[in-house]
Amino acid sequence: METTHELAGTVALVTGSARNIGRAIALALADAGAAVMVAARQALADAQAVAAEIERGGGRAAAMTADIGDPDAAAALVAATVERLGRLDILVNNASVRREVEFARLEYREWREVMASTLDGAYLCSRAALPHLIASGRGAIVNIGGLSSHLGAPRRAHVIAAKAGLVGLTRALAHDLAPHGVTVNCVAPGMIDTARSGPEPAHHKTLASPVGRKGRPEDIAALVRFLCGPGARYITGQTIHANGGLFMG
């Protein structure tokens, strides 16, 4: 971790931050001085544990659950962040569902579940957060995309479509929000070593990065931290890949 506190005085909302990459992002932003709302869909105990870890390190944090695919829940999450932590300067849209299923067996219900958590959730949270990000004067949105939306992968049509949508949303919002001083970028992680409830994605078995290892959640968190900080105010509308050289685009 860096030793500066370049985000001191700011407040960040990180969706899907109870575990893995989201957790690492929440901890990195807190290390930079931001107060953090740790948000999860259901894992309240895990979210509270991350918030407690931040507070033990001398930071400020809160935790809550919200189904951000629901407009009212997304708005309530943003409102609770401002109410409990005082403002909102940074939004990291990390929440996602990443199940694998063959396209012939992909039912609309599961398609909509992935779209709701990944793409709808990013839209709804960004929309609700917008007045606060504009008022901040240094607002930043970072969407967490994925390598498979650029390379393609089997059994992930719903996930890839949603993550690709985040790339388009990033570019569109960068245009709309630039006049208001809000930057919008997308980070696309490669193969990251995270705890999974199911088997490792099938495409991971056929890919290998030039650096010879999988990434760590902290590798992604460091990039997000930079994009939220004062050194990245001239960067917007970009999809930045962190994949050990596996995809060079």
Quick tags:
single chain; 249 residues; alpha/beta; Rossmann fold; seven-stranded parallel sheet; 43% helix
Give an overview in words:
The chain is of the alpha/beta class and 249 residues long. The protein has a single domain, classed as Rossmann fold (3-Layer(aba) Sandwich). It is built from 7 helices and 7 strands. A 7-stranded parallel beta sheet has the order 3-2-1-4-5-6-7, sandwiched between helices. Strand 2, helix 2 and strand 3 form a beta-alpha-beta unit. Helix 1 crosses helix 7. The model has no long low-confidence stretch (mean pLDDT 93).
Average pLDDT, to the nearest integer?
93
CATH superfamily: NAD(P)-binding Rossmann-like Domain
CATH architecture: 3-Layer(aba) Sandwich
CATH topology: Rossmann fold
> Could you describe the largest sheet, including whether it forms a barrel?
7 strands, parallel
List the uncertain runs.
none
Q: Can you tell me the number of structural domains?
A: 1
Backbone CA Rg = 17 Å
**CATH class designation:** Alpha Beta
Helix-strand makeup class: alpha/beta
Instruction: Write the H/E string, N to C.
Output: EHEHEHEHEHHEHE
List the helices and strands and how they pair.
Layout: E1 11-14, H1 20-31, E2 35-40, H2 44-56, E3 61-65, H3 71-85, E4 90-93, H4 108-136, E5 140-144, H5 148-151, H6 157-177, E6 183-189, H7 217-228, E7 239-242
Parallel strand pairs: 1-2, 1-4, 2-3, 4-5, 5-6, 6-7
Compact summary:
The protein has 249 residues and is of the alpha/beta class. Helices cover 43% and strands 14% of the residues. It has a single domain (11-242), classed as Rossmann fold (3-Layer(aba) Sandwich).
